[in-house]
Amino acid sequence: MTYVDGFLLAVPKANIEAYKAMARAAGAVWKEHGAIDYVECIGDDVPYGELTSFPRAVQASDDEIVIFAWVTYESRERRDEIVAKVMADERLKGDDWKDVFDGKRMIYGGFQAVVEL
């Protein structure tokens, strides 16, 4: 079964094009280092719920869009190897992303797949 890193974050609407460019560059690096898939999705039908919701989870404001993203790997072990390479990759060094979105509100985690159809 594959292993998945999942991400949820809010991006100001004014920064969406910059975010897309950043995501394309990051995705190319992840894939180059061995990720199976790299997917970034812009929220299209994500209402602000009364108790819980994607926007609430990342404290999205009215001028922000929720991003849901994931990276898949062959295994947890392979993921650990790939992420170490990605984090050391000079192309992703620097603080440029801090101007695009607030990383403090990003939610992320690793998940072991249990059903794959």
From TrEMBL:
SUPFAM superfamilies in UniProt: Dimeric alpha+beta barrel
Superkingdom of this protein's organism: Bacteria
Record protein name field: DUF1428 family protein
A Pfam family reported for this protein in Swiss-Prot or TrEMBL: DUF1428
InterPro entries on file: Dimeric_a/b-barrel, DUF1428
